Amino acid sequence: MKFNQVYQFTLPMPTFDNFSQQEVVEIYKNGSAFSHFIERWLAKKFPITHVKGCKEYDFTDNANPEIKYDAKTLTAGGCKYYPSSMIGTGRKFDQELFEQKANKLIYIIVSNILFPEIRVKFVTGFDLLIQYPNGVIPYADYGKFFEDDTFVPEKKPPKEKKTQTPRRVEEIRLKKLKKVGDLRKECMESGLHDKGKKSDLLERLLSMLSNKFGDDGQLKKTESIENVVLPIPSESGSELH
Q1: Rg over CA atoms, the chain
Q2: What is residue 82's predicted lDDT score, i.e. its pLDDT?
Q3: Domain boundaries, the chain
Q4: Higher pLDDT, 48 or 158
């Protein structure tokens, strides 16, 4: 077992009752499903012991239990090798904590992109941080990372732009108007004695005017900022334009 060496294996095609070969491959290309099989498989292929249910690491070294390994899968969606506790909706990525943990681990990066062919590479956290400091190995880097010169990344089809229904357009318009009203109220009640804040409020207010600005909050190309006029009471009672 050597660091930074690419190990290549072609597994026998698995089957499952009446599933087609394509259906089985699709399941094995899913990182979550694949991990349940590959973690046990790695422990049978290399001198490491699988640690079940451990959230900090997946394996220990047979010769030295103080050496810890963590397995991560490089799929068509890339590979996030930072802690699972930082992955998911509502979870926060902590760069400092991530680097502390990464420097204590040896990563086993496995790819199922070409399943049933898989590739395995052992890399220290220190080396991986130098190559990918943000904790993500992009899908497009598969060829470089696993030394496969024949690999050509598949181009993902562009997302179809959703057609907005009249109801949705009206919802967006009313939402913008409410924001405009809220900002006008804030400007009149609390921002008048702070020129910096007043300027910021006016800028935000203008950027959300529904007739002059698009859904992205940007001024439409056919509009001019000089055409946007909004009466806002000033400190003296007169109107600001």
Answers
A1: 27
A2: 82
A3: 6-145, 166-240
A4: 48
Structure confidence at residue 166 as a pLDDT band (50, 70, 90): confident
Residues in the chain: 241
* C-alpha span between 28 and 116 (Å, rounded): 8
pTM of the prediction? 0.63
Torsion sign (Cα): 63, 64, 65, 67? negative
Class of CATH domain 6-145? alpha beta
CA angle 134, 139, 141 (to 5 degrees): 80
Are β-strands 117-124 and 239-240 bridged in parallel, bridged antiparallel, or unpaired?
Answer: unpaired
Cα 202 from Cα 169, distance rounded (Å): 25
Distances (CA, A) of 12 to 15, 132, 238: 9, 32, 81
Report d(CA 131, CA 8) in Å as an integer.
21
- Give the pLDDT score at 181: 72
Enter the tokens of residue 199. 């300027």
Choose the weakest-confidence range: 34-38, 45-49, 150-154, 171-175.
171-175
